[in-house]
Amino acid sequence: MDSLELIGMISIIMAGATVGIGAPITAIGEGWAVSRAMGALAQQPDAAPVISRTLFIGLAMTESSAIYCFVVSMILIFANPFWNHFAGVAGAQ
Amino acid sequence: MNITPDTIVYWQAGSIRISATLVFTWIVMAILVLGSWAVTRKLSTGVSVSRGQLLLEIVLNGIRAQIRDVVQTDVDRYLPFIGTLFLFILLSNVLVIVPGFHPPTGSVSTTSALALCVFVAVPAFGITARGLRPFLNSYLQPTPMMLPFNLIGELTRTISLSIRLFGNMMSGTMITATALAIAPLFFPIVMNALGLLIGVIQAYIFSILALVFVASASRAHEEQTARTPDAEEEERTHG
């Protein structure tokens, strides 16, 4: 197998694995946060603005790790520097 | 498929190139500036006000209320910076529904520029509110050993601020493009509606996070002044 095929194969597999591992773990964490916030909202409806704002900020913080995974997999698929390099080398030959 | 509008180049001369990011940033800026100018040219305090003035007043009051919820006091110090960030990001995210519009926030250059503004604004607001020495001192809290971690935290939160906005907006356009290829009849509309919701939430989150960072850099002031009498008393008892 030449290097181009190998790079393509590994990039696709790793792009899937990155989102497949990163997103569910983040989702579990966010689910925990939301369920706790729901409990707090049920107990103290008066504090709803503070709770929901803090929840939003916390979710955004947590969400960013899943977004990192997504960005990495998008780079692997659409803007892979190794692929571009070896495709250029193969094209020159 | 384009991962970022930076790669769409309209005009190039030497190293200067006008990419889609730049053009659509200018469009958003023009809409904001000309719209506000057209409305504020004929403001009235009477009983009947124009529609545009009502719209701007509602937006301004909403932003002020959100800022007041977070910082309690001194709303007008943060309003220009946070409000500008919010309006720019909101408009460029919402205009996604216009066909042919590439959101400038879907490019790393725009989002990192916005995050750099926050990165510069944190010490600027902190120093004007507390003075140079107390502000620099806050990096040595709780112990001087935490200095590298405080600095790293400052950097990483800037990076995560920019990547978060970029990732969300890029994923929105990517999902719409993918849905267009797979199920072009009805599905892209639903995903576009979801993209609008995400765009508004991301604009809110970016500006709230910027506000929290800026406010926390300038707020420890009150804690410090509140702590000073205790410290003096301690010195007196020890001395």
Question: Secondary-structure blueprint of this entry?
Answer:
The complex is a heterodimer of chains A (93) and B (239).
Chain A: H1 3-43, H2 48-78, H3 81-92
Helix pairs in contact in A: 1-2, 1-3
Chain B: E1 9-13, E2 16-19, H1 20-40, H2 51-71, H3 75-94, H4 108-130, H5 132-137, H6 147-182, H7 187-238
Antiparallel strand pairs in B: 1-2
Structural summary, described in words:
The complex is a heterodimer of chains A (93) and B (239). By secondary structure, chain A is mainly α. Chain A is built from 3 helices and no strands. Chain A has helices at residues 3-43, 48-78, 81-92. In chain A, helix 1 runs antiparallel to helix 2 (48-78) and helix 1 packs antiparallel against helix 3. The radius of gyration of chain A is 20 Å and the shape is rod-shaped. The two termini of chain A are 17 Å apart. Chain B is mainly alpha-helical and 239 residues long. Chain B contains 7 helices and 2 strands, in the order E-E-H-H-H-H-H-H-H. Chain B has helices at residues 20-40, 51-71, 75-94, 108-130, 132-137, 147-182, 187-238, and strands at 9-13, 16-19. Residues 224-235 of chain B have low confidence and may be disordered. The chains are: A mainly alpha (93), B mainly alpha (239).
Average of the residue pLDDT scores of chain B: 85
Share of β-strand residues of chain B:
under 5%
The N- and C-terminal alpha carbons of chain A lie at a distance of: 17 Å
Low-confidence stretches of chain B: 224-235
Shape of chain A: rod-shaped
- List the strand order in the largest sheet of chain B: 1-2
Number of helices of chain B: 7
Radius of gyration of chain A: 20 Å
Helix content of chain B: over 70%
The termini of chain B sit apart by 72 Å
Q: How confident overall, as mean pLDDT of chain A?
A: 89
The helix/strand series of chain B, from N terminus to C terminus, equals EEHHHHHHH
Proportion of residues in β-strands of chain A: under 5%
Structural class of chain B: mainly alpha
Poorly predicted parts of chain A = none
Number of strands of chain B: 2
Helix content of chain A: over 70%
Largest sheet of chain A: none
Supply the number of helical segments of chain A.
Answer: 3
